[in-house]
Amino acid sequence: MTATATATRYLHLVRHGEAAADESGLTENGRRQATLLGRRLADVPFAAVHHGPLPRAEETAHLIGAELDGVPLHRTELAGDYVPHVPHRDELPPESADLFLRFLEGASPEDREHGPALARRALERFTGPVDGEEDRHELVVTHNFLVAWLVRDALYAPEWRWLGLNHANAALTVIRYPPDRPASLLLANDMRHLPADLRWTGFPPEMHL
């Protein structure tokens, strides 16, 4: 019996567009961001678009999908907004431990219980090379925490290192998972498809470049 060929996965990661204050969906800027990103991605041969269940991710995915050619959209809790790992103090660098632990005080008991399990399942579902003879491109429209978690994993960084990795609304990150070598980060927080007035939303003003 012939062994199944193994191919490369290209995982495209997107944080949702700018969200309305009540989180009911996107702002007008957020809708523009999503549409422009969809146009940038129109020539990528995606096998699927996966998106989280919250309105800001779902609307972003549908606006991107409208610019693609018949690519199926899949709603999944694995692309949701959750805390992927809650570190103990001794995992963290001493100089930043207090900062990160204060940030995580807002995590609910449900986040602490279910988030890490979802994060492990997301790694199983979205990362690594794929079986078959053709490379596969997949798009995940999600939230800042999951993008950070998957980037951290691709860089073989410790689990706590998702903290402090931030991504702008509708920015593009691409990770390559070849069958014969480690994962590589091809793009990170790329906003070249956005005009200047739509870049860096989701960041405090002092972090705008």
Tell me roughly what share of residues is in helical segments: 25-40%
Helix count, per DSSP? 5
Overall average pLDDT: 94
Largest pleated sheet: 6 strands, mixed
H/E element order: EEHEHEHHEEHEE
- Which ranges are low-confidence, i.e. pLDDT below 50, for 5 or more consecutive residues? none
Oligomer: single chain
Rg is 17 Å
Counting DSSP E segments of at least 2 residues, the number of strands comes to 8
Span between N and C termini?
55 Å
Strand order of the largest sheet: 4-3-6-2-7-8
Structural features, described:
The protein is α/β, with parallel strands linked by helices and 209 residues long. Helices cover 29% and strands 19% of the residues. The protein has a 6-stranded mixed sheet with strand order 4-3-6-2-7-8, sandwiched between helices. β7 and β8 form a beta hairpin. α1 crosses α2.
Topology:
Blueprint: E1 6-7, E2 9-15, H1 28-40, E3 46-51, H2 55-65, E4 73-75, H3 97-104, H4 109-126, E5 130-131, E6 136-142, H5 144-154, E7 172-177, E8 184-190
Parallel strand pairs: 2-6, 3-4, 3-6
Antiparallel strand pairs: 1-5, 2-7, 7-8
Helix pairs in contact: 1-2
Characteristic key phrases:
5 helices, 6-stranded mixed sheet, single chain, two-stranded antiparallel sheet
